[in-house]
Amino acid sequence: MNDTDQPILELKRISQAYGKQLVVKDLSLTLQRGEIGCLLGASGCGKTTVLRTIAGFEPLLAGEIYISGGSVSSAEFSLPPAKRKIGMVFQDYALFPHLSIFDNVAFGLRDLDKTEQLRRVNDALELVGLYREHSKYPHEISGGQQQRVALARALAPQPELLLMDEPFSNLDVALRERLSMEVRDILKRYGTTALFVTHNQHEAFAVADRIGVMHNGEILQWDTAHRLYHQPVSTKIAEFVGEGSLINGVVQEENQVETCLGKLTGIVNQQLAKNTAVQILVRPEDVVHDDDSPVKAKVLRRSFRGANILYQLLLEGGEQVQALVPSHCDHQPGELIGIQPDVRHLVLFPF
Amino acid sequence: MLSFSLNRTAASLRGCCRFLLHPSGWQHLTLAVALLVLAPLTVLLLSWSEPAWEIWQHLRQTLLSQLLINTFKLVFGVTAGTLLLGVSLAWLSGACEFPGRKYFSWLLLLPLAMPTYVLAFVFLGLFDFSGPVQTQLRDWFGRDLWFPNIRSAAGVVLVMSLALYPYVYLLARNAFSTQGKRALEAAESLGCSPTEGFFRVVLPMARPWIAGGATLVLMEALADFGAVSIFNFDTFTTAIYKAWFGFFSLAAAAQLSTLLVVIVFLLIVLEQKLRKRMRFTQSRVAPQAERIILGPARKWLATGYCTGVLLIAFFLPALQLLRWSLEVFHQEFDSRYLALLGRSLTLGLSAALLIAVVALLLAYAGRRHQDRLTHSLIRISTLGYALPGTVLAVGIFIPLAALDNFFIDFAHAYFNLALPQLLQGTVLIMLLAYLIRFMAAGYKSIDSAMHRVTSNIDEASRLMGLRGIKLLIKVHLPMLRGGIFTALTLIFVDVMKEMPITLMTRPFGWDTLAVKIYELTSEGEWERAALPALTLLLSGLLPIVLLMRGTEKN
To answer: Under a CB-based contact definition with an 8 Å cutoff, are residues A137 and A172 in contact?
Structure first.
């Protein structure tokens, strides 16, 4: 096996507990060199614990963690954080308030000689666009700038693996979106392997190559953003990722399902026998507004989103779907509108 | 930027002009209090117009170098000692987890209740050559057992470090408990070992707080009169006392005082700078950081260390006081004791009321007038906390005595009246001195409560029809009540414990518990001093209870 094939991070069936409560259960994942991974989940799902265990701040109950092929944590053994060649961006950034921006970034480089230190710090600050602020102190710069200093500080020692704990949660919405794309660019340019945790899907989608959706200490699906959205492996994922509804249906033949929206045809996620009762995931963009359609639905709620309006619709059989409709078609709650299904991926879950 | 600062200068100039031309009643008041604080300082400086050469000659030949050396030893020793104790205890109770940590975090404040002079005489009583400890040890190990001499620089330093470490502890614990573990983790993720991280990150981050505590300790050490006189350890404060009451030279006392004032003034400047730094260094998000869980051996070491410090600094001395008090109780608990107690209580309560009222007025003045001059005057009004009691006693006595003599001469010359002394020999001098010295304690508590009464609250009340006196009683008073109560408690206890001002300016027959302790301990009568000391100790527990409630709320 040559060096490039070796995964940078490998978690093998790790478990973690606080007291008697198991917070991480039998969790495995792998990150290849240069990949950006993300653990996505609601607060309390154990995602931050996983991150802190990888960093070496928490002991492991069972399983094993490898960084660049070397074991760093097991139930019996834990390499000190300082020796793991990791960088970490903390949720509150944890910048050192008594040090200038320059000294903060140089902190992890103190074993290098002065000229090399200077070069690396300048490179890192250049990369995050804060070269001009190097002599300021953390309290003198904005929250977004602090975030980027924290990133530069973690990247400057060129860690094998970068960990980020809710890196954008302290920023306002507009800044969050811009910075998350910026951070992805920076990580890709550095070729850094990174794992971050967030509760925000948009952040996960914008930054990560691979996303693990976590629930109750387990990863439900470890996949690309596209596959999580279009090919969720369980109803839980389907409900958690993006918007949409599950409606009932019966498999007719290959690629066809009978539902209250009519016969749906498309690529199925699994082959099922004829007459199997299933739930089908219908995304809001799968429902098209069409006044001539025989299928009618009653508007229950509407939420104006600028270009589009998201309607919550009641179908004749009593089931509900959502529809994302261009906002020039304005309907009020109580009105009946015609809709047409346009489902390309048939995501079926047998009962 | 430039126009902005010009605007500000113009605005503050306008403010000053308005102040000078049409001052309001509030501003008159701030001016009056500020002048009262500045008066003793001015008088002390003016005393150099007639230097008391003979006494200086004498001092220079015999005492001065010793004074300087002793003061130097005391200040450095006590600072080092309190830093060592305060920082280590604060780190343990602020950022670590070990058995009993919750209780220790407030128990370790208890030494605040013990005036330094009380701890000093208990230590002398316990560890002196003829004390119970050495006697017992000689019984066990023979007559020529070596024991360190407690009546030494090291002895005073030890006693004062044990009594004063809570200042450093309290501030450093705040710093550690908000940022301790997170900062350490950040350092570790950047390749530091935990020990390296502690010294490179955690300690430097807490430096403004630690240094802030240390400057408070420094001021206390410089101002201390009771403990050093019990140890016969001559410093500036005892020299000032001796110059006045030994050589009967107020001028020499005043001139010695100026030297001390200069040192203290430098410290204030330092402290104010540190306060500014503290604001900057405060982390934006300050969640209660997680604690470091100590290993099996270390956690018991931590428990043992905290217990040891507490025993030596508080529980053993308190027990000893109790034992002595019980031994002499039936002789000492009499009408004389009750009279002393009554005078201490009277002084404490009346000073507390007086100062709280003035502090409340100052806080309202600051609220009504946001201009810079008013705020500077309020700042000056609260600077008296830095003046050592001995210095203040001299500084307040000289002008009031002069005023008295002026009245007497005036009445004699123009009305041929023989006036008695109006001010000297009254409680007024003491109360004014207390007002100057303890203004800061009162003002800070009341002003921080005042900050919660925002102008929006006034407006909201007005919309609901509350105005004038009704607004004060129904809205302001309930919101300020906590602050006023804290102020009253702090001042009351401070005045109860206060020694040099009371000793030097009290009218005839106004002996208090603290004065009695001074008299008894200067004759080595530890047992008889125990009952008044125990009384002070109990009253000293009051503010600690307040402090505890405050930290629990946070």
So the answer is: no
The answer, yes or no, to whether residue B168 has pLDDT greater than 50, is: yes
- Which single residue is written with the structure tokens 């387990």? A218
Whether residue A216 sits in one domain with residue A143: yes
Is the separation of the CB atoms in A172 and A13 below 8 Å? Answer: no
Query: Of how many residues is chain A composed?
Result: 351
Distances (CA, A) of A152 to A88, A115, A162, B267, B526: 10, 18, 11, 39, 64
3-state secondary structure A244-299: CEEEEEEEEECCEEEECCEEEECEECCCCCCCCEEEEEECHHHEEECCCCCCEEEE
| A115 and A248 housed in the same domain | no
Say whether both A133 and A256 belong to one domain: no
The residue type found at B533 is A
Q: Which residues of A touch B188 (CB under 8 A)?
A: 56-57, 80-82
If asked whether residues A63 and A198 sit together in one domain, one would say yes
The alpha carbon of residue B56 is apart from the nearest alpha carbon of chain A, in Å, by 46
Any residues with CB less than 8 A from the CB of A169 and at least 6 apart, and which?
A: A91, A198, A199, A200
| Structural Rg of chain B based on CA atoms | 26
* B285 contacts chain A (CB < 8 A): yes
Report the residue of A96, A121, A160 to disrupt the B interface, i.e. the one with the largest count of B CBs within 10 Å: A96
Q: Are residues A154 and A204 in the same domain?
A: yes
Cβ distance A111 to B191 less than 8 Å, yes or no, reads yes
The alpha-carbon gap from A7 to the nearest alpha carbon of chain B, in Å, equals: 21
Q: For the ranges A260-274, B94-108, B492-506, which has the lowest average pLDDT?
A: A260-274
Which amino acid is present at B63? L
Please report where in the chains the tokens 């009020």 appear, as a residue: A332
Q: How far apart are the first and last CA of chain A?
A: 44
Beta bridge partners of A17: A22
Residue with tokens 């500045």: B38
Question: The domain containing residue A345 runs over which residues?
Answer: 244-350
Give the end of a domain, one of A203, A218, A237. Answer: A237
> What are the C-alpha distances in Å from B442 to residues A93, B170, B308, B552?
38, 19, 34, 22
Query: From the CA of A110, how many Å to the nearest CA of chain B?
Result: 9
pLDDT in tens, A43-57: 888 899 999 999 998
**Residues of chain B contacting A72 with CB distance shorter than 8 Å:** none
Domain limit, last residue, from A191, A211, A237? A237
Chosen CATH of B333-522 out of 1.10.645.10, 1.10.760.10, 1.10.3720.10, 3.90.700.10? 1.10.3720.10
So where are chain B's domains?
A: 42-325, 333-522
For A310, B63, B254, the CA distances from B48, given in Å and listed in that order, are: 86, 20, 8
Pick the range with the lowest mean pLDDT from A223-232, B22-31, B262-271, B388-397: B22-31
What pTM does this model have?
Answer: 0.79
CATH of the domain at A62: 3.40.50.300
Q: Are residues A44 and A167 in the same domain?
A: yes
**Assembly ipTM:** 0.79
Residues A92 and A146 in one domain: yes
* Fold category of B42-325 in CATH: MetI-like fold (1.10.3720)
Return the bridge partners of B321, or none: none
Span B518-528, pLDDT tens digits: 988 888 888 88
Question: Strand ranges (DSSP E) for B407-529?
Answer: none
Cα–Cα dist B95/B179, whole Å? 8
Q: Do A92 and B283 touch (CB under 8 A)?
A: yes
Q: Does B190 touch chain A (CB under 8 A)?
A: yes
Chain A residue numbers touching B189 (CB-CB < 8 A): 55, 81-82, 86-88, 154, 163
Rounded to an integer, what distance in angstroms lies between the CA atom of residue B397 and that of residue B385? 18
Count CB-CB contacts under 10 A for residue A351.
7
Distance CA(B435)–CA(B359), nearest Å, equals: 10
Report the domain count for chain A: 2
